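Researcher: Go.
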Amino acid sequence: MQSLINSAVAYFKTGMNVIPINPQNKRPMIKFTTEPLNTESKVKDYWIKYPYANIALQTKNFFVIDVDRHEGGKNGVSSIKSLHHDEWFKGTLVQKTPHNGYQYFFLKPDCFKISQHINFLDGVDIKAHPNNYVVVAPSKIKGKAYEWLNHNPIIKPCSELVSFIKEKTNKESETNDFNFDVKYRKNAKTAFSKYAPMFLHGLGVKGTRNDNLHKLVSYMVGYGQVKPTDAYKLAQLANNATDEKLNEKEFDATFRSCLKKEGLL
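Model: Structure:
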């Protein structure tokens, strides 16, 4: 295996916030929000100790449009193509993921706050919260590597792409009672107040149930540190409170998909 120390230092020198990632589960190996590797010597020392740690970059000044593509699952590439605006995604830094997906890097615009948005499109997430991160090349997951497809600088998104994100975000906030842009906030009470009603009032209407279940489980196991077995029982409570609840097969498939994405399966 190849040590990633030189790559980690190189990213740090560009001004990026570098995070060491466990290659087995894509989890941070440090408490990067409170104990960051904020000097070159700290970065070097950490990768000297853990030379094969993967590398992630904190999404502070940039956001990422994360296009997933899994065989037999959601195809974010098709979702992007269906927009018929390939020009929106050209000119900026792009990397290919180990599962043949794509990640487009953009600087955060001044005119509009880009929010974290899971399943922005079918198979497409927006990673934007300052306390989120994205794994980057030459990191590997199960022997498969991330790969930069170009060496372009990260640029600001075009106004048309910003308008599309803004319009879609506004429409969903009007039609969905649940605002999930809270799961990375430090205020646990604020986060809990957004998720707790689901246990009483359910996962929402058809068309939103799977997405809401996925976000609820991600919050519990990823940031609430709830055991998967307990999260399963709690998620069942939310499903049972849903007027037209998911059947057992669909519920289990969504739950397992979430655990897999969180690196727990």
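Model: The chain has a mean pLDDT of 87.
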